[in-house]
Design a protein that fits this description.
Helix content: 10-25%
Order of helices and strands: EEEHEEHEHEHH
Radius of gyration: 16 Å
Strand order of the largest sheet: 6-3-4-5-7
Largest sheet: 5 strands, antiparallel
Length: about 180
């Protein structure tokens, strides 16, 4: 497998570029997804316009449809080569925020590696891909806590038929629930 991939990254206000980035390493709880289909969300446009701040060099996008390229050793219930989607939020379900019913407020990914950030709540704007961690406008995306954050695509459904599920459909359901 190659070591580099193409990715659309935020450079500065009004500037997103396709660059070469390293393909992420897979940890024991992760999955590496080869992106087959994704889309541009209105949020990506806000990022481009500088209306929503993200780190320079961050891969944008949060609506992944793809195939599992590599699974971490602790991930069960999925197989390499399986078609999947991953939700845009992708929380760490071991955090206090997630255990308390607020997985979109799990700031544990904001803490540098090696430090435990799993005990605090931190507003994250609700999603991580393309906001706090590298997103899906790339050839590959690393899905953290993959066992909880992946969903298999049923046989017979096309990428286009499930493309709205990772973000748009769930956002609509949550809006209806709140109403």
């Amino acid at each position: 497998m190659a070591t580099m991939m193409k990715a659309a990254v935020f450079v500065e206000k009004n500037r997103i570029e396709v660059v070469d980035k390293p393909i992420p390493d897979v940890g024991p709880n992760d999955a590496l997804i080869r992106i087959t289909t994704t889309t541009i969300c209105g949020t990506d446009v806000h990022i481009l316009k500088g209306e929503y701040p993200v780190a320079q060099g961050l891969t944008i996008g949060h609506e992944p449809v793809g195939v599992i390229e590599k699974l971490g050793s602790a991930v069960q219930g999925y197989t390499e080569g399986q078609r999947v989607i991953a939700g845009a939020i992708c929380p760490n379900f071991n955090s206090y925020a997630a255990q308390d019913g607020a997985p979109s407020q799990d700031g544990s990914y904001l803490i540098p590696q090696g430090l435990c950030g799993c005990h605090g709540f931190k507003a994250t704007a609700g999603w991580r891909f393309g906001n706090l961690i590298d997103g899906t406008q790339a050839e590959y995306v690393l899905v953290p806590d993959a066992q909880a954050n992946l969903a298999p695509i049923p046989d017979g459904l096309t990428d286009e038929q499930v493309l709205m599920c990772p973000d748009i459909m769930s956002t609509g359901f949550k809006g209806a629930e709140n109403a």
